[in-house]
Amino acid sequence: MSDQKRGFKTPFDHSTRFAQKRLHLGVCGSVACYRAADLLRAWRGMGMHVSATLTPGARRFVTPMLFESLGAAPVYEDMFSQGQEIFAHLEPGQHAHAMVVAPASADALFRLAHGAAGDMLAAQALAFDGPLVIAPAMNPRMWAHAATRANVALLRERGAHIVAPACGGTACGDEGEGRLAPLHDIFLAALKALSPQDMAGRRVMVTLGPTREGWDGVRFWSNPSSGLMGAALAVCAWLRGAEVTAVCGPGVRARMPQGIARRDVVSARDMFAVAAALWPQMDVGMFTAAVADFSPRPLGGRKFKKAEAPQGFSLDFLPNPDILQSLAEQRAPGQKILAFAAETAPDMNALLPLAHAKITRKKADLLAANRVNSADSGFASPTNSMVVVDANGREEIWPTQSKADVAWELCSWLLRM
Fold this sequence. Notes:
Layout: E1 22-27, H1 36-45, E2 49-54, H2 64-69, E3 75-76, H3 91-95, E4 98-104, H4 106-114, H5 120-126, E5 132-136, H6 140-144, H7 146-157, E6 161-162, E7 166-169, E8 175-179, H8 183-193, E9 203-208, E10 213-214, E11 220-221, H9 228-239, E12 243-248, E13 261-264, H10 268-278, E14 284-287, E15 294-296, E16 317-319, H11 323-330, E17 336-343, H12 351-362, E18 366-371, E19 383-390, E20 395-402, H13 403-416
Parallel strand pairs: 1-2, 1-4, 2-3, 4-5, 5-6, 9-12, 9-14, 12-13, 14-17, 17-18
Antiparallel strand pairs: 7-8, 10-11, 15-16, 18-19, 19-20
Helix pairs in contact: 4-7, 9-13
């Protein structure tokens, strides 16, 4: 579903890692402020506690009752609203782990940059010393103005994370950069503000999704991988501070933040070429892609006609490069490798010998194996149950959990090695 419609999805929607985290949401006057309700709903769906402040301008578009009904508590209005705590302007700074202002108006950017504290939201921001995420939204000419750019530069210099506006049509009819960023970018920026930055300084490459091996002008040999597990790993590494490049097979639709560099490929040989070129600059390789081991010998660039083989026909298959094993053999000292194995097995215990054999054969540091013949694990499933082994002989069997939580645990295991 497009971010322009209600609702959005990311690989971390079902993570339990942020349950009980406390977030404060500031909503400013903008036509886009109704979209903050979807952000609130998404964070609350993860078990997070969210409080909110609506500026007077925001309350001309949406009501405090909307945010209260979606679970925000408390919802602040004016500095001296009747019945409000006298020190309400200090409470987010005392309780919230991160603060998000979305949408942020041009006036709000000025107040935040210059420490003006004449309204509730500005005062709360001034008293807040945790991570601050700001998603501006305004007319393109207002966004391009030197005064706005100077305020944004000052906020960035002080450590605020700016989720830059997107390009497109705005409510006033103008076209350009100024509309609120895609919701998944703001959603994930908040999660990053709540995440440990224990992978900062590391460069991570993730291969994900299927490959397609064409055998005529229109048909191909492939598999049903969605790339969701790899996307969860890419997002997880980015949330925890890594510089991430995702090498994506065809059909990968998982939403990843703009901070992740994406390289799209089609065939196994395409993926091998791109991954091999990137690998020398990487600290970690996460090889989750469901790469075709073989590709059919092409019958040409035209469409093969049924009339040409009324009794059926055969294809010759040729081996593809083994991306994981080839790059493992080329790795430099200090480079770490996380490998994946998609297997069909009767139960989780039956995966253990397969996983141990593969980690030795592929020369990986850590290997996660899952049963693709299980309904709650493997291709296109939002969850995975895993057998995990490492090069030191340690092994664990993980019960079914979201792929986001699997990714979090795998990143943590790699950091301990």
